[in-house]
Amino acid sequence: xxxxxxxxxxxxxxxxxxxxxxxxxxxxxxxxxxxxxxxxxxxxxxxxxxxxxxxxxxxxxxxxxxxxxxxxxxxxxxxxxxxxxxxxxxxxxxxxxxxxxxxxxxxxxxxxxxxxxxxxxxxxxxxxxxxxxxxxxxxxxxxxxxxxxxxxxxxxxxxxxxxxxxxxxxxxxxxxxxxxxxxxxxxxxxxxxxxxxxxxxxxxxxxxxxxxxxxxxxxxxxxxxxxxxxxxxxxxxxxxxxxxxxxxxxxxxxxxxxxxxxxxxxxxxxxxxxxxxxxxxxxxxxxxxxxxxxxxxxxxxxxx
Length: 304
Prior knowledge:
The chain is an alpha+beta fold. It has helices at 2-11, 23-37, 42-51, 98-110, 124-130, 181-185, 204-209, 231-234, 254-261, 271-280, 289-301, and strands at 15-20, 65-72, 76-83, 86-92, 116-118, 135-136, 142-143, 151-158, 246-252.
């Protein structure tokens, strides 16, 4: 069954791994030890203690495994806004099609009388690495063979039997051993030389996606994305073969830009604007769009 699942994933351009559900408790134990020995900041401690979930839910079927899927997406989208009759260009990530993947996976497994339910807030990157599906980069982003870092993970509890329990220590990609490209290109110094774990409180991705004002120490010149950050990926040798996988420009009219600057919810969007928002994955970050767009526009207006 595992081979059939991997063949199904390959037909969709995805990569998949299936692991025993018991590995979730192994990761929990490892993270508990790790959190006691490592120098973690408050945000990192919150992720381990409060965000991650380790309980196996009642599913209506006997859960025996976790299916992890890497779903590819374009590197990024070029984005163009019109505001006060002027054009502003920036970048955005592109969202993977989770809904379609889940439907396709459900339909495929149903033919074999197997089932899935989403596995939310599990330590997905770590489990993907320890299962052999991915490796960590120095930037703490994970990389999958044949996809680079151009994908998003989805995970599901399932009753699909696992064939082989492939499990290994957390590891960094060999190519990172003597490479410091991401360290040199990080705009905020979040990637550290003295340890593997980045300082996520300085990471531009975190700052772009957190509420409130940007810290005073953050230069306007570092902003280049609607949310997240691409600096450590565009410079990474493991992503070199995928640099041309770009879409756009995705164009926002003056009226659409005004709605985003006003912090409007998606309920106020036209069908066309909703489609653009979903393509770029803006929905979780609409509250931050007024701040993020303003700083991008302000920097573009400054003399160079």
